[in-house]
Amino acid sequence: MLLIGTILLLIIGIIHSYLGEKYLLIRLFRRDDLPKLLGSDWFTKRVLRFAWHLTTLAWWGFAAILYVLSNPTVNVQNEILIIIAVVFALSGVVSFSFTRGKHLSWLFFFTIAAISYYGVAYS
Questions:
Q1: How far apart are alpha carbons 61 and 104 in whole angstroms?
Q2: What pLDDT does 63 receive?
Q3: Is the pLDDT at 39 greater than 90, yes or no?
Q4: Which chain regions cross the lipid bilayer (predicted)?
Q5: Fewer CB within 10 Å, N- or C-terminus of the chain?
Q6: Does the pTM of the predicted model rise above 0.85?
């Protein structure tokens, strides 16, 4: 059953990102009345885009956790912490690159990734 959840999360992540770009974000970004953060709507658009796709990344992380739990090993805690570290490291990369470091969430994402990795390395 957990493998079915894994597959569904992978599929819904792909659909969410693709359809969100095609039918929601692109249409939203054509509007002239978006809030102008930091002087223009560029930052607003970038934050909306990275936040949208971070949802997919989070779902894929949950898919990986379900997969690990479907066939647990002795080190299931470490495996889950590694997944969390990878998801948050990738979230930091996405946040930093999409906003050129202007949205400070990347600091928190990298910190969470490091703490999670530390939990594996020193457990």
A1: 22
A2: 98
A3: no
A4: 50-68, 80-98, 104-122
A5: N
A6: yes
- Cα(114)–Cα(108) distance, integer angstroms: 10
Per DSSP, the three-state class of 91 is helix
pLDDT score at 70? 96
- Pick the closest to residue 26 from 45, 13, 40, 43 (CA basis): 45
Q: What pairs with residue 84 in β-bridges?
A: none
Task: Please return the burial class of 23, using the count of CB atoms within 10 Å of its CB with bins 0-12, 13-18 and 19+.
Answer: exposed
Asked if 27 and 88 count as a contact pair (C-beta separation under 8 A), the reply is: no
Whether the CB-CB separation of 47 and 37 falls below 8 Å is answered with yes
Alpha-carbon distance 45 to 28, whole Å? 9
6's CB contacts (< 8 A; 6+ apart) are 63, 64, 66, 67, 70
pLDDT of residue 123: 80
